[in-house]
Write a structure and sequence with these properties.
heterodimer, A: mainly beta, B: 114 residues, 4-stranded antiparallel sheet
Chain lengths: 113, 114
Amino acid sequence: AQSVAQPEDQVNVAEGNPLTVKCTYSVSGNPYLFWYVQYPNRGLQFLLKYITGDNLVKGSYGFEAEFNKSQTSFHLKKPSALVSDSALYFCAVRNNQGGKLIFGQGTELSVKP
Amino acid sequence: DAGVTQSPTHLIKTRGQQVTLRCSPKSGHDTVSWYQQALGQGPQFIFQYYEEEERQRGNFPDRFSGHQFPNYSSELNVNALLLGDSALYLCASSFGDRLGNTIYFGEGSWLTVV
């Protein structure tokens, strides 16, 4: 069965410092991986995805993610965090039999001034 | 370019009632999926519609049903509401069913069952 794990419920970072939000996955076949962000009382916004190719994927708002096949990880990163990055972040894998998204439990990112 | 739009944004229903939620996909998209997000959890897949047919279904009871119209818009219907159905219901759309295609979400419909 395909699954996604986000091992940290919450990540706290000081503004201007780099941030990392962790994600590991389990799939059969090639992984199709996504990151979404959810601001309070809002829907999900697409940040970036990995399909194939370069292991470092760049996305919206300065975020990037590093795909590591041997560690089955897809960690979200940003070189310099902003207070406005504070939100709930979801990692997801696309089921390769039918295409539904399977989400992790989410990680609450808090960036303090 | 309009994104995925959903209505209503908030609603309150009583146990046992029925509810209909509506969704218009992003312009150019033909595939619509629905997800349920309970408080403090990640979204859970309910079902997907393509060419007006249900193509895939998650682990939800038959009380949850849907429809896709010729203009690709969609409805989610929930019958015999339970307190546990209280959640954010998210509509998502994409073009076709290629796994690499991006899925875009709407702002959601908040359902409270009392």
